[in-house]
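As a warm-up, study this chain.
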Amino acid sequence: MFKIVTFPLGPLETNVYLLLNETTKEAVIIDPGMNPDRIFKPLEGYKVVAILLTHAHFDHIGGLKQVRERYNCPVYIHSLEADWLTSAEWNGSLRWPQVTRPMSFEPAEHLLEDSQELTLMGYTFYVLHTPGHSPGSVSFLYKDHLFSGDVLFRTSVGRTDLPGGNQRELMRSIHKKVLTLGDAVNVYPGHGPVTTVGFEKQYNPFI
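Now compare it with the structure written out below.
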């Protein structure tokens, strides 16, 4: 059985998603944010097989070192942000000293590309390259569940004023990659509550 557990982590309340196969007792972690201790107890008894990153901004990767060392599992990130893990300048941690110390991590084991299929814990996830918030932003689709990072929120969209952001690209990603998926698709954003494609089509003032 497929199960999703959500925790907002760190000062920016970044959503980390635990994807669980309750039959095989395997798990995938999406965006291990800062102060990840809260996710360890729910993962007891599970083998973590992968860490998927929607993008490499510091609030989405703040707990990466702890989680990686604890579970000894590979990290996946889009190729355009491969270097961001090792650069405190690019991952933004240098820009907010009042929030975090500079962050630098080991490179990811796997680089993602658009339309790639990932088979993890017996399920197939589709990688959608959805740039705009950042150049290498991706969304992960499993059946009617889309993990959108900071591309689309409930009644809002991702900011584009950070390095590498592009408003036109963001709108193109949302309209061509997300809104075409079907109204019933559930959207799990990097911050805030879950929404649906249909709800955003009707009520999101930015799209």
